[in-house]
Amino acid sequence: MSRATFFRQSGWMMIASVAGGAFMWAVHPVMVQEVDRVPLGSITDFLKRFIQEPVSVPQYSLFATLLNLIMWMSIPSNGLQTVFAQQTAAAIDEDHERKLRGTVRSVFSATTLIWVLIAVVCFVFKERIVRDLKVSNPGALWLTLMVGLPILWTPIFGGLLQGRQNFLWLGWISIMAGLGRCVGAFIIVRMFGGGVTGAMAAVLLASAAPIIFCLWQTRADWHGPFEVIQWGPWLRRLVPLTIGLGTTTVMMTADMVMVRSLFPETESGFYAAAATLGRALVLFTVPLAAVMFPKIVRSAALAERTDVLGQALGATALMGAGAALFLTIFPKVPLQIACAPSFLVIAPLVRWFGWCMLPLTLANVLVNNLLARERFRIVPWLVLLTIGYVVTFWIVANRSAGREFLGAFRNVVHVLGCFSSLLLAVAIYFTWRKQ
């Protein structure tokens, strides 16, 4: 493929991702920003008549934690978008099309069953979950659980769109999910005072609505003659992909859950603000990997050479370093835009988060490349690194709890940075080692 085509498609996905991510991120200022700090003149005075007070710092901490739990629930389906992107990109004749339709139908049913099992586990351990995460209204937890169903379904359709290189609608789905979440939070939380429970209701609506458009755009891939899926070969591809992609998800989200359970609610709310900015750096560059993946799969299937990895890695490094540098020089600016003045106390941690997340951002591109080529030897090493990270983070966080919170949070972010760097080193080794 031409360099111009790659960057045109990457550019649209970047625009869509930035727009969708901006709306996703805008949920946070919608939740915690004071109306008086919105410089809109007479519009601000008008809004004061309808807008409720922002949620408290402890409530915001809970909201951020529940969002991370949603990402955990998505882990069983993490590999699905990748596998469906692979299978769809390789479906170049009617025989493969029939197999693809059968796979879509079977996996749709299987993910529904997985969600039922997750619901049962949550019901059994509901008291412990509510206690450890300090959930004041259990309704917020059950709404979070309901979000898990469309979250498990979405990668199926996202993989179909990605494999067909239908980046137009793949981008619009991202925008709709973010816009729906932002508008829903504004109406339910700030206009009607719905709190964290209302915020999770907005997330549920925003996650479910795009499924309708996905069904429309992918109809030919699930409707029509099909063959029954052969689970054995399919699972041999899915399991290592799910585990491999799941490790990066855990690396990116486990910190917030552990901080919420070990630190006071107010302090964990400050940490959530810095962590949200740091994770935005990773999510900002995800579209490059999304565009890269099906092109690598197709080039591998046709035995063609491609320089897509170099293009994606170079662009990711440039944008990621630029974002980290911005957070280093202007750590208070995004906090002033997104949060109430009380959150500015966490600004020193924002600098660390930017650079500690950068290696994870680059590693994500390399890991996606390896998994696209079905080079699964890296997966056991990813698992070992992730286990080591979670254990080390828990030990350091547990020992740091009760101390001055900025110093304690700096310690745990250093753990994240060290293991992100190790992950990048492992990904580099497996990318350029001899086969």
Sequence stretches where pLDDT stays below 50 over 5 or more residues: none
Overall mean pLDDT score?
85
The H-and-E topology, N to C, reads as HHHHHHHHHHHHHHHHH
Number of domain units: 1
The count of DSSP E runs of length 2 or more, i.e. the number of strands, is: 0
The percentage helix is over 70%
Strand-pairing-aware structural class: mainly alpha
How many alpha or pi helices? 17
- Distance between the first and last residues' Cα: 25 Å
- Subunit organisation of the chains: single chain
User: What is Rg?
Assistant: 21 Å
User: What proportion of the residues form beta strands (DSSP E)?
Assistant: under 5%
The outline comes out as: globular
Characterize the largest beta sheet: strand count, sense, and whether it forms a barrel.
none
Describe the structure.
By secondary structure, the chain is mainly alpha-helical. It has one domain. Helix 4 packs parallel to helix 12 and helix 13 runs antiparallel to helix 15. The longest helix has 37 residues. The model has no long low-confidence stretch (mean pLDDT 85).
What structural keywords apply?
435 residues; mainly alpha
List strands and helices in order, with pairings.
Layout (H helix, E strand, L loop, with lengths): L2 H30 L9 H7 L8 H17 L4 H13 L3 H31 L1 H7 L5 H26 L3 H25 L3 H23 L1 H4 L8 H32 L2 H37 L6 H22 L2 H7 L8 H26 L6 H22 L4 H28 L3
Helix pairs in contact: 1-8, 1-12, 3-7, 3-9, 3-11, 3-12, 4-5, 4-7, 4-11, 4-12, 5-7, 7-9, 8-9, 11-12, 11-15, 11-16, 12-13, 12-15, 13-15, 15-17, 16-17
